Amino acid sequence: MALYIKAAEILEKAEMKQGALKTLVYDSKFSNIKQLFALVCETQKFSSILQEIIESTKLLKPTKLKMPLAKVLVYDLLIGQGLKCGGTWKAKMMKHRARLQAELARMKVRRKVSRNEDLLPASAKQNPGDQLPRYVRVNTLKTTVEDAVDYLKRDGFSYLGQAVKLDNFTLKNKQFVIDLHLPELLVFSPKTDFHDHFLYKAGHIILQDKASCLPAYLLNPPPGSHVIDACAAPGNKTSHLAAIMKNRGKLFAFDLDGKRLATMSTLLLRAGVTCHQLANQDFLKVDPDGSQYKDVEYILLDPSCSGSGMVCLRDNSAANQEEEKARLASLASFQLRCLNHGLRFPRLKRLVYSTCSIHSQENEEVIAACLQQNPNFRLVPLLPQWPERGLEPLPQCLRASTSKTLTHGFFVALLEKVSDTSNIKEKPADPVSDVENVLPAAKIPDAAAEEKPGSAVEENPESSDAEEMVTLPAEDTNGDAPSKKRRRKRKKKKKNLSKAE
Ligand code: SAM
C-alpha cells in the first residue's frame, strides 16, 4: 500500500504544480524509485480519463478515497498491472471493479476506440517507451536459449530467427527474434507481457532492457573469478554476472538500501544464483585492501544516477533548472568517487561503469575525470558495430537511446588496467573481441523450419552477419597481440562462417 500512498501524494503535488514529477519522486526516498515513477507517470497520463470514470461511478463517496489515491488505484486496477496491495483497500476496490470496468468500456464505445491508449489526448500518447521492444534475457543458470525458444514456440509464439538489423525488431503480436548483439536476448513486440508466464515465474527468463544487459556482458568475468557488483540492487545485473560466471567464483554485491536488497535476494533466489554474497553496505566504505577482496579482478559499477535515460522517468516539465543542475553535480561527484574507489582494488583488471542517464555530466565527463586521475587505466573500445557511441572524445564508450538502439537511454564504459595487459594468458574472454565468446552460430535456434511469409528476419541465422558479432580482433580493441591459439581459433571460425555463407 505504501506504493499507492506515495504515488497519490506525488500525483497531487505534481498536479498542483508544487514541483517537477521527477524531483518529487526522487525526493520521496521511496525504496523502488522506478516502480513509483512509472506508476505516477502513467496515472498522470491517464489522469483526465480516470477522473471521468471516478466521477461517473461516484467512487469517492462509498470508498471514502481522496481523488489522487482513487486515480492511482483505479489506474492499476483497470489499466496497469493489477492491484498490488491487499487488505481493506483492495477489498473496497474489488467491490466496485465491475462498475469501473463497465464505465471504461462505455467510454471506449462512445469514442469508437478499442484500446485504452486510444482514449488519451494526442499529446499524452507519444511515450517512446511504449514503442520499445520487450526484451527478455534467457537465464542460462536455469535453461538454454534453445530450450527457451522451443518452449515459447510450443506456447504459441513464432520464432523468426536471429535478427541481423534493428529493422527486424518490427514484430507482430507473438513473433520474436534473437537479438543481433546479445545472443542470450530475445526480442518481442512492445507490451508483450511475461509477468504471468511460467518461464518468468520460474526464473528461466529475466525481463531486462537490452541496454541494461550490456555491462555484465561486456565485463564478461570468467567462471571462477572474483567479482564485485558495487551498487547492486535490485540485482538484474548481478544475476546476469552470475550466469556468465556459471555460478562459479565469488560475486560480492553491495547496496546501501536494505529494502532493495531484500527484493534482490528474492530475485536472485528465483534466478538460481548461488555464488553471491550480499552486503547492506556503503561501497565507498568497503576496504579495497580487505583480505576477502584480494582476488577481485572485475567490478561492475552501476551507481545511482539521474535516471534520465529511462523513458518513463523522462520529465520534460520546466523543472527548477538550478535544482536540477545541483542534483546532477552531486550525482556526478558521487559517481566519480565510486569509480576512483573501485579502481583501488589491488588486483583489479577491468571495471565496467554504467548509468541509465543521458547526461554527459554523469557519463563521459565522469569517465574523463577518472582517467585523468588514474593514468594506469584506459578505455577498452566496445562493440564496434554498436550504432551509438560515447560523445567525443570518448567513442570507445557506448550510448543507447530509444531512437538509435531501440532501448532506454544508457551509457557504458569499460576501463582496463594498463599494466595488466601484457599478460595475455590471464586476459579474460572478451565479448568485444573473442570469437569463442559469441554463441556458436550452430546453437542459434533455426527458424527456417517455421517459414513465415514476409518474415522480417533472414531465415538463415548462420549468415555473414553472425561474423559481424565477432567484432574487432583483440589487438584492435586493447593493443594486445592475440595469442597463437586465439589466432588459430579465429582463422578456423572465419573458415566455418564462410562455409556457412
Ligand atoms: N545495478 C542495479 C541493477 O541492475 O539492478 C541497479 C543499481 S541502481 C542504478 C543504484 C543502486 O545504488 C541503488 O540500489 C542504490 O541503493 C545503490 N547505492 C547508492 N549509493 C550507494 C553506495 N554508496 N554504496 C552502495 N550502494 C549504493
Bound molecules: S-adenosylmethionine
- Please, how many domains? 3
Which structural category do the helix and sheet elements fall into? alpha/beta
Number of strands: 13
CATH architecture of the largest domain: 3-Layer(aba) Sandwich
Approximate shape: globular
How would you characterize the largest beta sheet? 8 strands, mixed
Helix count from the secondary structure assignment: 19
Strand fraction? 5-15%
**Low-pLDDT sequence parts:** 421-429, 433-442, 449-501
CATH top level label of the largest domain:
Alpha Beta
Average of the residue pLDDT scores = 82
Q: Percent helix among the residues?
A: 25-40%
Measured between the Cα atoms of the first and last residue, the distance is: 57 Å
What gyration radius follows from the Cα positions, in whole Å? 24 Å
CATH superfamily membership of the largest domain, which one?
Vaccinia Virus protein VP39
Q: What do we call the CATH topology of the largest domain?
A: Rossmann fold
What features would you describe in this structure?
Helix content is 39%, strand content 12%. It has 501 residues and is of the alpha/beta class. The chain has three domains: 2-125, no CATH class; 128-207, 2-Layer Sandwich (Alpha-Beta Plaits); 210-426, Rossmann fold. Strands 6, 7, 8, 9, 10, 11, 12 and 13 form an eight-stranded mixed beta sheet that branches. A five-stranded mixed beta sheet has the order 2-3-4-1-5. β6 (226-229), α13 (236-244) and β7 (250-255) form a beta-alpha-beta unit. The longest helix has 24 residues, at 87-110. Mean pLDDT is 82; it is low at 421-429, 433-442 and 449-501. Bound molecules: S-adenosylmethionine. The site of S-adenosylmethionine (SAM) has 18 residues, from α13 and β7.
